[in-house]
């Protein structure tokens, strides 16, 4: 063989290797399928050490990404200001999916904090059925808080929600004006949404899309499960998903949104797609409000006028400002570790009452968190954030919604989630037809999961 | 020092005592490493076998259920898909990586200019962060905007592969990246092996009029056999338990087209909290690895004779 040729091809090959191999280390993508627990970048409230009587000791509360997620410290500070017997202190855990792994390990080892967070309902069953939560039905009984019922198992309540995120439709007012399309008026069904997205894509310059659908299964299944009558993922029947997937596939084909494959292969983030005006609409959870405000302030997101509208509805029966639109979202709650020392239990329960009270809600609203208790004062506080949308519809949307829990509480929840996650990626990537995928999922749910 | 023996001792000491003394001394040297191995690997592995016979959600006591987990595996289509996908990955990944690594090693064992640089370059993917690899390769594979499909489009190919965004092409895509990533490492091992083959053998073969192929077939391959055996075994085990690459590149999707056994185990254990069931699939993977390695071992022994 010609040695020079070999050397040349080796040089070429190695160059290619070098070019593609030298990428700087990037942080692991936190591809969480869950929707709760978004971070906010609002300023951390300073610790308020105003106690006049000496506390007897500490109560520990788990949290994550403390420097960008101030809600735990805010709750602790707000509670500590009432001079409890024990001071609540926050201890940091891993963010993302690692939180539950680390918490389960610590609970099993007996080193977990006194109070810990239920990020979503998927793992709540594991904690509650594994007897890792104190029965707090007595606290729940004193609360006027709808989200509490999500944490019931066999008639008892095992955690108290402090925040209740909900999914809305974010829209870029500037892009709507540019395209000459009318902004959402609160009465949209999904078909209105798809039509607007297609029209926007056509009329907007360049690659700007009408809508962005993130790769999470929640974006499609969350709405389908919440809005379809009688839908229950634990029934093993998934026909209700069909119209939602057909619409999404049609939108992909029409170029109304980036295709699923483009989203996954290019690791697109919803923050940058909406924040840098590459898409005019975004269905997303309420945690994004504070993030968007912070990113516009820091320059990470571009400066444009935006608003939130109710999530598009299945049909007109729930749409419009004379109805209460249906959306979804898991509550985020706090539970008590049964290993807590007896004398601390009363303070821990008092803390839970505080986090689900209107007082706690106001503290959370002040830093851009959607609390589990709603009131006009809470909305006022929330919409005082610098740079937040100021129109009437946004306020109305924030206050008026029926939020269905995203996940149900059952031993099968995690497995069904995995199964439907596979359906989601198979269908949206056009690898499997929707009918075949639903049939396949139904068979597997019945024969491999629900029959145990 | 291991071999120092106290010669001032009276010769009446029995040999057995000396042997015991030496053995204990030897053990004391490997003890620090062995304690770590024992606590962090051996004990968990032994416990794994027990947990595979139980139902356990990480809390409280594991309930003994006998072989129930294994019979459940038999009827679990996800498990069979994972097993099939693991086989699919291995069947292509092992020979392709071996061929690429051997080719590179042979090439860089010659006196080409700048081979030090190329050896380093070929090793680069192996030491690059797997997450960076996944991000960059996924962009290269992007069905609409990726350079691969743009090049194919340039050549007029109409039916473009969807790569990691389609169930049909995701496994080939992952295999390509797997081969690319690991060939440098195995190249290094094979290079070391090649350099132990005495140059005189090649000279003698040349004098006898052997062609390049004949020299490769009758000098290189036999001389490289111990290294090739080691590389094949490592490569096989590595392919059967491939995990990180798949997790960050496709997360098992689209659908379950790239779901492999290790990820199945991870899902059942750490995402669905069924540690007993996850353990039983880990046991299955263990026995698959063990039996294939044993097969290779005996085959290699027969070849050596």
Automatic annotation (TrEMBL), chain A:
Which protein, by its recorded name, is this?
Extracellular solute-binding protein
Q: Where is this region: Disordered?
A: 26-56
Q: Which UniProt keywords apply?
A: Signal
Spell out the Low complexity composition-biased ranges.
26-51
Q: Which residues form the signal peptide?
A: 1-24
The organism's place on the tree of life at top rank: Bacteria
Which organism was this protein described from? Tessaracoccus rhinocerotis
Family annotation (Gene3D superfamilies): Periplasmic binding protein-like II (3.40.190.10)
State the similarity comment: Belongs to the bacterial solute-binding protein 1 family.
The UniProt entry, under PROSITE patterns, shows: PROKAR_LIPOPROTEIN (PS51257)
UniProtKB/TrEMBL annotation, chain B:
Annotated GO CC locations? plasma membrane
Q: Where in the cell is it found?
A: Cell membrane
Record membrane topology: Multi-pass membrane protein
Q: Name one GO biological process term.
A: transmembrane transport
Top-rank taxon, per record: Bacteria
Q: Which residues cross the membrane?
A: 29-51, 87-108, 120-140, 160-180, 227-249, 275-299
Give the main localization category.
membrane
Keywords, A to Z, come to: Cell membrane, Membrane, Transmembrane, Transmembrane helix, Transport
Query: Mind telling me which CDD domains this protein's record contains?
Result: TM_PBP2
Alphabetized PROSITE patterns for the sequence: ABC_TM1
Q: Where is the ABC transmembrane type-1 domain?
A: 83-296
What Gene3D superfamilies does this protein's entry cite?
A: MetI-like
Q: Which family does it belong to?
A: Belongs to the binding-protein-dependent transport system permease family.
What is this protein's name? Sugar ABC transporter permease
User: Which source organism?
Assistant: Tessaracoccus rhinocerotis
């Amino acid at each position: 063989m010609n040695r020079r040729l070999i050397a040349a091809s080796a040089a070429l090959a190695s160059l290619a290797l070098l070019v593609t191999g030298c990428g700087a280390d990037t942080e692991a993508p936190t591809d969480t399928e869950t929707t709760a627990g978004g971070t906010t970048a609002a300023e951390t409230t300073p610790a308020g050490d105003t106690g006049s009587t000496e506390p007897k000791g500490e109560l520990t509360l788990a949290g994550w990404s403390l420097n960008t997620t101030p809600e735990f410290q805010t709750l602790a500070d707000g509670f500590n200001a009432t001079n409890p017997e024990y001071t609540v202190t926050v201890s940091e855990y891993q963010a993302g999916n690692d939180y539950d792994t680390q918490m389960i390990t610590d609970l099993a080892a007996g080193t977990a904090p006194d109070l810990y967070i239920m990020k979503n309902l998927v793992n709540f069953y594991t904690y509650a059925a594994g007897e890792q939560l104190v029965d707090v039905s007595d606290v729940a009984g004193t609360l006027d808080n709808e989200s509490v019922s999500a944490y019931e198992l066999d008639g008892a309540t095992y955690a108290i929600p402090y925040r209740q995120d909900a999914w809305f439709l974010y829209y870029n007012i500037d892009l709507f004006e540019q395209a000459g399309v009318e902004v959402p008026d609160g009465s949209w069904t999904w078909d209105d949404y798809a039509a607007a997205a297609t029209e926007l894509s056509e009329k907007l310059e360049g690659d700007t899309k009408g809508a962005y659908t993130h790769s999470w299964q929640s974006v499609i299944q969350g709405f389908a499960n919440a809005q379809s009558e009688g839908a229950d993922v634990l029934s093993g029947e998934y026909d209700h998903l069909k119209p939602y997937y057909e619409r999404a596939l049609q939108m992909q084909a029409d170029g109304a949104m980036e295709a699923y494959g483009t989203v996954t292969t290019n690791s697109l983030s919803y923050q940058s797609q909406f924040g840098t005006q590459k898409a005019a609409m975004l269905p997303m959870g309420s945690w994004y409000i504070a993030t968007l405000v912070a990113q516009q302030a820091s320059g990470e997101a571009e400066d444009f006028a935006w608003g939130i509208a109710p999530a598009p509805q299945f049909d007109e029966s729930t749409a419009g400002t004379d109805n209460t639109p249906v959306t979804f979202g898991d509550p985020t709650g706090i539970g008590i570790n049964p290993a807590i020392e007896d004398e601390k239990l009363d303070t821990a329960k008092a803390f839970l009452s505080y986090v689900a009270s209107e007082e706690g809600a106001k503290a959370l609203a002040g830093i851009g968190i959607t609390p589990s208790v709603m009131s006009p004062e809470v909305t006022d506080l929330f919409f005082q954030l610098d740079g937040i949308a100021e129109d009437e519809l946004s306020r109305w949307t924030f206050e008026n919604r029926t939020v269905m829990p995203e996940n149900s509480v059952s031993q099968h929840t995690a497995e069904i989630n995995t199964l439907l996650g596979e359906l989601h990626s198979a269908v949206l990537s056009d690898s499997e037809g929707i009918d075949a995928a639903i049939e396949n999922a139904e068979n597997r749910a019945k024969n491999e999961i629900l029959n145990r | 020092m291991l071999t120092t023996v106290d010669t001032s001792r009276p010769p009446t000491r029995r040999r057995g005592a000396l042997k015991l003394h030496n053995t204990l001394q030897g053990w004391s040297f490997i003890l620090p490493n062995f304690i770590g191995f024992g606590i962090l690997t051996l004990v968990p592995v032994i416990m794994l076998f027990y947990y595979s016979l139980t139902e356990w959600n990480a809390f409280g006591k594991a309930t003994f259920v006998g072989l129930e987990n294994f019979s459940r595996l038999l009827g679990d289509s996800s498990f069979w898909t994972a097993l099939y996908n693991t086989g699919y990955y291995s069947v292509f990944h092992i020979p392709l990586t071996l061929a690429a690594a051997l080719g590179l090693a042979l090439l860089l064992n010659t006196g080409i200019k700048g081979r030090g640089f190329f050896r380093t370059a070929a090793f680069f993917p192996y030491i690059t962060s797997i997450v960076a690899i996944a991000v960059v390769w996924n962009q290269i594979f992007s069905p609409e905007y990726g350079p691969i499909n743009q090049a194919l489009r340039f050549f007029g190919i109409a039916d473009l592969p969807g790569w990691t965004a389609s169930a049909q092409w995701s496994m080939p895509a992952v295999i390509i990246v797997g081969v690319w990533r690991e060939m440098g490492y195995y190249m290094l091992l094979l290079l070391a092996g090649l350099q132990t083959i005495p140059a005189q053998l090649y000279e003698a073969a040349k004098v006898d009029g052997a062609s390049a192929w004949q020299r490769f077939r009758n000098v290189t391959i036999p001389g490289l056999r111990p290294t090739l055996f080691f590389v094949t075994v490592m490569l096989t085990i590595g392919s059967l338990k491939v995990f990180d690459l798949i997790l960050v590149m496709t997360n098992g999707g689209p659908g379950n087209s790239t779901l492999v056994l290790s990820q199945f185990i991870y899902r059942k254990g750490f995402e669905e909290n069924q540690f007993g069931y996850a353990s039983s699939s880990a046991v299955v993977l263990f026995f698959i690895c063990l039996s294939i390695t044993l097969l290779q071992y005996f085959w290699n022994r027969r070849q050596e004779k």
